[in-house]
Amino acid sequence: GYTMKGSGAGGSEQNYVFIGKPNNGTITNSISSGYRTLVGNPYPSAIDADEFIMDNVAGTGNGSIDGTIYFWEHYNSNTTHILEDYEGSYSAYNLTGGVSIVIPDGISGQGTTTKTPGRYIPVGQGFFVTASTTGGNVAFNNDQRIFMREAVNTSVFMEANNQNAFFNDNVGDIESLEDMEETPAVIQRIRLSFVGPDGLRRPLLLGFTSDNAATDEFDYGYDALHSDEFNNDMFFMIDNDKYVIQGVGQFNNSKQYPLGMFLDQNGSVKVQLDDTENFGTAIDVFIYDSELNTYTLLNETDFNLDLDTGDYTNRFFVTFKSVDESSDESTELEETSDLEDTSDLEEEELDSQSIKFLQSTNEIFITGIQAQEINSVKLINLLGQNVMNWNNLNSLNSSEIRLSVQRITTGQYIIQVNTKTKTYTKKTIISQ
Fold it and tell me: Is residue 331 included in any domain, yes or no?
């Protein structure tokens, strides 16, 4: 990347001329474990951010980065070169998608975010990467380069006049992308915004991978840690860490995903649905308040609540159906005989075999069946959909098996235990 001091020209735009031999071939930068490093597109062409991430991320690439890139946006009203007086924030992009910057109310006369990073990084654009636990060399190569015209809905510069065009990842006519050989897996996205008592607006992104490339746990390249935290803020929570982007598997309306709110002052908070992307049919998006046991349908109204100062890490969840809908599905199952093969399964619970759900610990508890005899355990909702699945339990070497169940909607479920000789099923109610 490049940093250039303004010339003092009276207009709002200034041309800069790059003179020298254009870069070509493989270019590497060494980064150290645990540090964030400023790099940038070194080529006289756009680069594909997805390809760059896949080439360098831990797990699939050379393992040097965690798989998220961060772009600094400097507010136009800045008039200083003193670092501590800068006004701005970081947007983020990974394989799940991009999320725009946070802007506190009143800063630079802006209360909303406008520019969301997308898939293509233009010439001269700098960005930060975070080293993996091992660090190593970040590699740029010609396979990452791509021809994209500088126009709306393609690759444009950060200060483009069209606020929706910043690194826009709407591919459009895919045949015009000369270096692209196949259409990538579809990412379905839900975009939320949190507004705190001080007016700060935090955008968040939840993405669903059609090929199950991501999980509910942390995944390199799909989950983005926050780069800045404010006095009143909200994040997705994964293992007590705070994320602005969470990538998961295929969309399942039985799932729920925890949100963490962190408030330094009393007041009103708001969560709103900004957009949904790539869903074939409309979906419902709720905020579930586990303390008040309420579901707010964000498609119809914003979630508003007065809260006291404190950390709320296990109270609020994003979910996709209310408890009333779960009850409706229960009635539907009783009236329908051909939902799935679960209707053919005999429910068995003998004196020596027991299948239970423990509400106190959110666990499936199986006794009397040796783990070595179990092929799989499935948790199935009343539509016949697999919500959770456990395989390879033979390593447990026990006749008492506990399987953790997290982040699913309250309702009725079927626990299905498939052994080498028979199948056991148990109906249960799960309330989290």
Answer: no
What SS3 class is residue 17? coil
Give, in order, the Cα–Cα distances in Å from 107 to each of 110, 139, 198, 204, 232. Answer: 6, 37, 12, 20, 15
Supply φ then ψ for residue 409, to 5 degrees.
-75, 140
Note whether residue 194 is domain-resident.
yes
pLDDT tens for each residue of the chain, 432 residues long: 456 666 666 677 777 777 888 899 999 999 999 899 999 999 999 999 999 999 999 887 788 999 999 998 877 667 777 777 777 789 999 999 999 988 766 554 444 446 889 899 998 899 999 999 888 999 999 999 998 776 555 444 444 333 333 444 433 333 334 444 455 678 999 999 999 999 989 999 999 999 999 999 999 999 999 988 889 999 999 999 999 999 999 999 999 999 999 999 999 999 999 999 999 899 999 999 988 889 999 999 999 999 999 999 989 999 998 865 544 444 443 433 333 443 344 444 444 678 988 887 888 989 888 888 888 899 998 777 788 888 877 666 677 888 888 878 788 889 999 888 888 888 888 876
Q: Do 103 and 151 share a domain, yes or no?
A: yes
Burial class (CB in 10 A: 0-12, 13-18, 19+), 397: exposed
**Residue range of the domain that includes 380:** 339-430
What's 23's DSSP letter? Answer: P
Task: Name the domain boundary from 323, 358, 374.
Answer: 323
Residue 329 lies in a domain: no
